């Protein structure tokens, strides 16, 4: 029996749609620059490969709800995207085998301190300060792949206070889901419990305290997030 010097942190998890089961989350992999229109709105080169970065598992906010406006930013942005949850993994997964490792799918938000992202990009610095902060990864319930089928299309949609801001089809992903899984497994040993945020379409923008974000992907459980007051 292991005795810890301090109380261990709680296991990060997500709900599973239609079930009392919980999906334990090990790592959150994120893919940037994966829709051409978003690359253009960020003034980046669409010929560059998507960027791979990570968020800590304790940044998850299961099912949305209220999240505080974070410290250390004055330009807090939403990025709505499809999330893929893995039931297995490994190194160097062939693209043709990638879908066999999928547990299910969810809608998620890659919340971003945009002001600090611009500074990091300009100086070639790491992205943790802009992407890996508290409450930066709201994710809805996971729908099992047995219910959805392997997803290759479906609209990603986000409304802010009832106004549509993002609306694009996941068929427009530059790197498709099987390619993402194969590429990630070249660099990391993927395992059960990993989730992948697959990239956001065009239409990203800032939110402020009081804003309500409604996020959806066709065929999946929707998620609503409210922006609360400053983080204490």
Automatic annotation (TrEMBL):
Molecular function terms, GO-annotated: hydrolase activity
Name assigned to this protein: Fumarylacetoacetate hydrolase family protein
Species whose genome carries this gene: Hoeflea ulvae
One Pfam family here: FAA_hydrolase
InterPro entries: Fumarylacetoacetase-like_C, Fumarylacetoacetase_C_sf
Gene3D superfamilies linked to this entry: Fumarylacetoacetase-like, C-terminal domain
Keywords annotated in UniProt: Hydrolase, Metal-binding
Source organism superkingdom: Bacteria
Fumarylacetoacetase-like C-terminal domain boundaries: 28-226
Coiled-coil region(s): none
UniProt KW Metal-binding keyword: yes
